[in-house]
Amino acid sequence: MSDNVRGKDLLNFMDKLAEPERSQFFELLSKEDAVATMQASLHERDRLRGTGAQPSELAFRTQAGSNVGIVGEHEQNRSEVIAAVASEVGDTAIAEDIPPDLHVYLRVPNSRGDPTLRDIYDLPQQVQAELEARFKAMWECEPSRTKTYRRFMEKPGHQVNKDVCLRNLVIRSSSAKGTMWAQGGKHKESACDKCIAKREACAHIDKVNNEYIKVFVPLPRDLRKGKKWDELGYWVLED
């Protein structure tokens, strides 16, 4: 895992801790992890100021074989960071309470209209947090949903070729049938009717460069009209 990615994950984890636990955790970090965390914090500050540099675009091929472009690169998922954190802090409850998860990418058309993937960290922090919070609320609100979601994240390969989004799989499980697309959506390209109605990010699992990732897709074209990809209204209907 690159220092940049690990620093971001550690920073996100620390943000969820109360101040006493945050200070205790930071003291337990190795020198390398402490530096990576500080660098991630400075990067976030610069991005909020509008001075952060954009990563270069890299080519990749999905498991389905379609050519897409990806911006940025994430080598490991958050579950490995959580396991390391639990080991360093000595609190196994951390690993038990937080399901393993996959890093999130965003499906965004480039200037030519071709699909690309951008790291969710490329969004403004407030938009990123809101998107992830809405999605998390979907699977976290009931123990049965959390259990199902955990199972999907532990064995993501089983979900890659499903013809419905993660919300439908989590809530309707094996009874999930084809999702309706009355509002112009299309699976793995734009949001389904259920996610649109619930104002939640529509997501699926894909495999890129031998890594499983979670992908948020935008609203159908007519519903996101006038919005830019880095705005909340590009991904979900705003309240």
Properties at a glance:
alpha/beta; 239 residues; 9 helices; 2 domains; 42% helix; globular
Structure description:
This protein is α/β, with parallel strands linked by helices. It folds into 2 domains: 1-51; 54-234, no CATH class. Helix content is 42%, strand content 15%. Strands 1-2-4-3-6-5 form a 6-stranded mixed beta sheet, with no helix packed on it. The termini are far apart.
Number of helices: 9
How many domains make up the coordinates? 2
How helical, in percent, are the residues?
Answer: 40-55%
Strand order of the largest sheet: 1-2-4-3-6-5
Poorly predicted sequence stretches spanning 5 or more consecutive residues: 51-67, 71-79, 89-96
Beta content comes to: 5-15%
Radius of gyration: 18 Å
Q: Report how far the terminal alpha carbons are from each other.
A: 37 Å
Q: Helix and strand string, N-terminal first?
A: HHHEEHHEEHHHHEE
The beta-strand count equals 6
On the 0 to 100 scale, the average pLDDT is 77
Shape: globular
Q: State the major sheet.
A: 6 strands, mixed
Class by SSE composition? alpha/beta
